[in-house]
Description:
Layout: E1 3-9, H1 11-24, E2 33-40, E3 46-52, E4 58-63, H2 65-78, E5 88-94, E6 97-104
Antiparallel strand pairs: 1-6, 2-3, 3-4, 5-6
Helix pairs in contact: 1-2
Amino acid sequence: MKECRCLVFTExxxxxxxxxxxxxxxxxxxxxxxxxxxxxxxxxxxxxxAVIDDxxxxxxxxxxxxxxxxxxxxxxxxxxxxLPVDGDKTLHLIGGALSLMIxxxxxxxxxLVEGHPAPRRAAAGRRMPLPAA
Length: 133
């Protein structure tokens, strides 16, 4: 079985996740107010957080996909949103919103139990008979 889960975040949630993670790691942050968040998906997903200080000077924070994905995972953990540890996590833009897509078993071949044949598939629109007891 393969599983796909997609979490879609607002701009405010993305900015909060990144800023909270940087604060916890004691990394330098620009002073000011978050003006907006933009995304560029030409080569992966690059996130830019625009910060405006009290004098109107803008400081863009250009973030790579890895940092933002780690911040969103930490954001979910802080809010007790369960995430599979062994799932592959990637960022995508869906409808202009940043999404964390989690896939499980997409890169693994199906496991067959030794001694049991592979399950039969029914033709489209036909039901498979139940095995006799």
